[in-house]
Design brief:
The complex is a heterodimer of chains A (502) and B (291). With 502 residues, chain A is an alpha/beta fold. Chain A is built from 15 helices and 22 strands. The radius of gyration of chain A is 23 Å and the shape is globular. In chain A, 56% of the residues are buried. In chain B, the strands form four sheets. Chain B has a five-stranded parallel sheet, sandwiched between helices. In chain B, helix 2 packs antiparallel against helix 4 (99-122). The chains are: A alpha/beta (502), B alpha/beta (291). Chain A binds chain B through residues 150, 166-169, 261, 264-266, 268-269, 271-273, 280, 282, 437, 452, 456-457, 461-468, 471, 473, 475-479, 481-486, 488, 491-493, 496, 501, and chain B through 129-130, 132, 134-138, 140, 142, 144, 147, 149, 229, 240-241, 244-245, 247-251, 253, 272-274, 277, 281-288.
Amino acid sequence: MPTLAAGKKQTPRRQGRPAPELIFGDLWTYDPAPETADPKLKKRYELFINGRFVAPKSGKYFSSINPANEQKLAEIALADRADVDAAYRAAKKAYDTTWGKMPGAERAKYLFRIARLLQDRAREFAVAETMDGGKPIKESRDFDVPMAAAHFFYHAGWADKLDYVAPGRRIAPLGVVGQVIPWNFPLLMCAWKLAPALAMGNCVVLKPAETTSITALKLAEIIQDAGLPPGVVNIVTGAGETGAAVMGHPIPAKVAFTGSTEVGKIIMRSLAGTDKKMTMELGGKAANIIFDDAPLDQAVEGIINGIFFNQGHVCCAGSRLLVHEPVADRVIAKLKQRMKVLRVGDPLDKNTDVGAINSKEQLARITALVKSGVKEGAEMFQPACTLPAKGWYFPPTIFSGVSMSHRIAREEIFGPVLSILTFRTPEEAVEKANNTAYGLSAGVWTDKGSRILKMSTELKAGVVWANTYNKFDPTSPFGGYKESGFGREGGRQGLLDYCRLV
Amino acid sequence: MSRLPITKTPKVYVGGAFIRSESARVFPIRDAVGHFFANIPQCTRKDLRNAVEAAAKAGPGWAKRTAYNRGQILYRLGEMLEARAAEMIEALAMGASSPRIRAAAAREVTATVDRLIYYAGWADKYEQVLGNVNPVAAPYFNFTVTEPMGVIGVIAPDAAPLLGLVSLLAPAIVSGNTVVALASESQPYAAILLGEMLATSDLPGGVVNLLTGFRKEIVPTFATHTHLRAVSGVATADERKALKLGAAESVKRTHLLKAEEKTDWFADRAQSLEAIHDTLEFKTTWHPIGA
């Protein structure tokens, strides 16, 4: 049975002393609890162009690997310029002949259908998402897939109410849009991109990330089943070159990108001589700020969720913890204690908290940045945990004694690595939080309402979570300030980025 | 014997003060009949950087003013321009005697006053139209509000040198942004006079900074200056490309009209809520609902 201990001495729990620690480690082992639903994977996935699954013109395919065990899941068609061009021509034709002319109320019904069909196959999609990307099944099951369905359902209802999007102005769709999405929330990002574009009446060419194409192509099956007119949604798969072809093609009136700030800038430069509209959802280095009056146990849960959700592969991850000095020791002690009971391992296990790192390259990047943290003199803590022998994993990691100049305090790590800094006054917290080129999100933990509102006003970030973290909703606009990009996704404001004023 | 009139030495309005270019350079402008009129400061990249610094300093204070107060200050600016309309018409007509030119100048001045009044009225309303509460599917109070971006670069057109300039800067400052603007290169004098009116309008120093000079010297720095969070204005194809290339380096927002296409600054479309929206960020805040 578990034992209760408080540091070295047995003392009653009191303010200012470390809370009693539940020690499970050697006493219990967990039985595996694998999710066994069939992900219904195909051996080979083709491109989805003009309503049909078609082989790439080059005849080339690449492998999609399960990061949890390094096994090949399927082979995916590699789209080249010619395929992208075919996709855009199909989209243009669909816009000119069907989708662009359809009354909003009819468009809405297709989107409602997609939402429903996705809900029907939710478990299958969740398993596929976890196998393809490495995220814990509890996250794909309880967050990614239901949230993706919710995005289609929410935006469906807008399709015939667009007069209310921009009061006083008449709006029209842009036409054809190109979209490139990342590997951290493969299906959910499809939904974030497709739903508002389609509700507004645009047709789309979308490229998923090369390591996580499967759920996008499974969504194409649903799009077929829903009877969406051919060419309204086209999905082309491949890596950077395919992405460049999607962004650089002359047909789209707008391109939308979610990914790193580095690639976002490359795209902005490549389109500088054109009139293409853009939205950019780029990187982040969010500050999660804990004041001494915060409910500390809840805050610790928020810190854990903020940085270890989806292995930290989250652009809005709370990767810089700013702790008020008077409670820094207590917060760090509680955090370490909480980290010891995080379960790292098989993403398909229903009890897994932290799954596999999405790719070998990402693991190498995380490892390199963590090394720099140690080298630059920050103090590292990792709980004891056994990582699976095969697959790409990284233990939950925190650094204390971090200063603003450390690489781990400035660069986006995109992994389960938290950098802890301290502050003395609210002004210092704001100063440190804003001292970054990014501005996607921030967290504030305090019992004081007026302080929340003041902090929320002064933090240069597009999303502020107060006494919570990493919450998302289709009705809630998401997007960044500064080098975290421009444009919003979700809510009424998100629709503004897919229309033009007439 | 007739008295020799005292002519004014044109100075640009930066950081609430009237200055000449740090380079001490000037360029001459001529009046409608071709006589020497005045020497205008030929501002440099360094003048632009200094102006951005002044704008950045003024930003937080201006953004903290109440919306009601910002609205009144914009209205006051309209009052100043209305009261000195004759002088501004002179500045635009530059001594032309043609009734057509004088009427056009008068029309531009009244349209500019009306534009200021239009945006003054938006100050405490745009938030109610652009922001909202979001009904999230969980026990959270979730709301989206707007915030000013920070320091905005404005590149004014040659057509309608006063109305174009004010149509670009008013929607930026109404929400609490501060502006660094480059006046029309060919007709800079209206901006010189506008600076004098801004100085007497209760607008805090540094909120609007007006530079005069040559586009080819200054536009590249508008592109690359990382403290400018957005650039609005009218630009040629080459300038647009340069501005967007520079913007990529700091993910700057650009809202550029084409110099080769005629913009009707007098049209209803030339004033809009969307113009205010262009220099705003949306911020969404979440808070749990519970005991």
